[in-house]
Specification:
Blueprint (H helix, E strand, L loop, with lengths): L2 H27 L10 H23 L5 H11 L5 H22 L1 H9 L7 H4 L8 H22 L5 H4 L1 H17 L9 H13 L15 H20 L1
Helix pairs in contact: 1-2, 1-4, 2-9, 3-4, 3-7, 3-11, 4-10, 7-9, 7-11, 10-11
Length: about 240
């Protein structure tokens, strides 16, 4: 795959992922949305379908990593680092663009939200936050949850036919749903540095009314935790398989 194909594929695929993922959170959180208060299960499936749509779209161009932790795990396993920076750049740009698209879709709801007597907070639509602020515990949660994503992804490559048939992407989508339902409660399961950082930056710069001050004190955890998890997955997979 050429550098151009990889970059474009990751931009488009990650943008679709964030459009669906941030979009389902906006649908559940914002007032005047038909999905208001639909709940955590809806959010988990929305993110899973975002992975499904984004990865299938990007796969012909880049393989559909959509996640620096996945890219890092694959690089450690294979020893091929040549295009890692291209993947990560595409993922970050795509995540930012996906957040902008989500804002445009829910523009009227964001405007109406600011006019409510009790406005809904908006940072959580774009990025993750822990239910209990404990940096060590939060970091461990993100590491373990990311291993739960990246290690199976690496193992799927050993099953003949999954990649060629495209079934692996479907399985990964359901894997993300499972992680959200089982491991997402403590921190909101970033499991993807681009998924959290790109939309967090978008939230900071977009003209969202009454959005408050962005909390950057936590922002390193959903970046560092998944990267550690991805690296551990690559090391363990390379040693065990």
């Amino acid at each position: 795959m050429s550098n151009g194909d990889v970059f474009v594929g990751e931009v488009i695929g990650t943008a679709i992922l964030i459009l669906f993922g941030a979009g389902v959170v906006a649908a559940v959180v914002l007032n005047y949305s038909k999905a208001k208060d639909a709940g955590w299960v809806v959010i988990a499936f929305g993110w899973g379908f975002g992975v499904l749509a984004g990865a299938y779209t990007a796969a012909p161009l880049s393989g559909g990593h959509l996640n620096p932790a996945v890219t890092l795990g694959i690089a450690i396993d294979t020893g091929d680092w040549d295009q890692v920076h291209i993947y990560v750049a595409g993922q970050m740009v795509g995540a930012f663009l996906g957040a902008v698209l989500c804002w445009l879709v829910y523009f009227a709801q964001f405007q109406a939200n600011a006019e409510d007597e009790i406005a809904q907070p908006t940072l959580g639509i774009f990025s993750t936050a822990p239910e209990i602020r404990n940096p060590v515990a939060n970091l461990i949660t993100e590491i373990i949850a990311t291993v739960g994503l990246v290690l199976p992804i690496l193992a799927f490559g050993l099953t003949e036919g999954l990649g060629q048939s495209g079934t692996a992407i479907l399985i990964v989508a359901f894997l993300v749903v499972g992680i959200g339902l089982s491991l997402g409660g403590p921190t909101g399961y970033a499991i993807n540095p681009a998924r959290d950082l790109g939309p967090r930056i978008a939230h900071a710069v977009l003209p969202i009314p009454n959005k408050g001050t962005s909390d950057w004190s936590y922002s390193w955890i959903p970046v560092v935790g998944p990267l550690i998890g991805g690296a551990l997955s690559g090391v363990v997979f390379n040693a065990a398989f």
